[in-house]
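Lest this sound abstract, we think one record worth quoting, the chain in one-letter code, the fold tokenised, each line plainly labelled:

>
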Amino acid sequence: MNNLNSHNCNLNIRYDLPDEVWAKVSKVYERMPGWNGYKSGIPYWFGTEEDDVFIEASVEASGLSFYAQMNSDVWMSWIETFKLEATKVLGFDVGEPEDGYM
């Protein structure tokens, strides 16, 4: 793939949400394009950090964090789709805290 770049995104899906909410997040993971499953408890799409192209997620104190290495256009489309799907499933607006999403 050409023009590979690194990308980061932190979303307002807080680590301290109830297990029922995190179960819904897992369902969103599985429906996203490129779903690759879990490796050592970490969700991956398109590959793992051993591959040229991948997305991974982790739960941090600041919220749900994504790290990706891929083409910028593909990344932007993918993360926007994730935000929209998560918003529908979770029942609150999902976005980046620095953009005003709390």
In short: The helical segments are 19-31, 72-90. The mean pLDDT is 95.
